Amino acid sequence: MTDILVIGAGLIGMMCARELAHEGARVTLLERGEAGRESSWAGGGILSPLYPWRYPDAVSELARWSQQAYPALAEALREESGVDPERLDSGLLILDAEEKVAARQWADRFDARLDLCDGARVRALEPALGLTVEEALWLPEVGQVRNPRLTRALRGAVLKAGARLQEHTEVRALRIQAGRIQGVETADGFLNADQVVVAGGAWTAGLLADTGLELPVEPVRGQMLLFRASPDLLRHINLYQGRYVIPRRDGRVLVGSTLERVGFDKSTTGTARDDLHQAALQLVPALADCPLEQHWAGLRPGSPSGIPCIGPHPHCEGLYLNVGHYRNGVVLGPASVRLLVDQLSGRASFTDTSPYLFENSMIKIK
Questions:
Q1: What are 258-270's pLDDT values in tens digits?
Q2: Residue 161 resides in a domain
Q3: 312: closest CA among 346, 271, 274?
């Protein structure tokens, strides 16, 4: 028998499988496609929510814990897998500073370093910037990881930890008897388990429908562009009016992202490409001379308030959820997994778990 089945081999699912295997559980990780190839691969890898003061404090609580955990985690994953996730301390420069009062209050609550910069300092921080702004918000502690490398590192670390990974294995139904999970039905047959963790991202709501749980998690498409530039072009992550540019270690510059509620459609569009391209040149005019290498889309697991649901299914013993991270799966991942593993192990965690239970996290905050 498998002790624990984890459904979904995105970043959250792979982190769960790795941690549970390290704690001695026998873990099988099931993925409908290929591990780490959905939203975990497609995003920007910024280790902070965008405009973090706009989120409930429960999101910042997880983000702060994860930010402190990432340096050691990235190094451990490199050692376990041989793949460097390329965590960088890039800093985040927010070029629309209208919410500086709310930003300062948030920074004080979470002991985050935040500086209000005048135009001269902005130009000194980012000489390639095309915008002229009078004020900007500078978060020097914000880092990034390179998503495709992070998911590759996690895949290798999961296997090294002794977990079993079954790709191209779609879970068709959860088998429940007398209010307790028994296992899952797949195209290849039934797999039994003492406990099941659902980390299926945007696809989770459909899987849970037969359990009597209406999970308000829906796919939200995000389109991205990638430019090939020189490593000395851009110094920091820059954010303006919801669009951002991210410099990678090798000089490539990632530009994102759109927010589109179009169901499970991962196709790219010319409209989004043109919009992102225009935003990129507004922020960094020199990108006009850089080749555009890639344009892709991913599906985020949108949730009502951005607070993920982490914890037991309210009506089924042995069934657990770790879903609904929306735009922040990378930065919230380590903390989300720590919370869930602590619950599975029956021990206290680093923070109160109640905000992340279904009945609290899946309610839209007004």
A1: 999 999 999 999 9
A2: yes
A3: 346
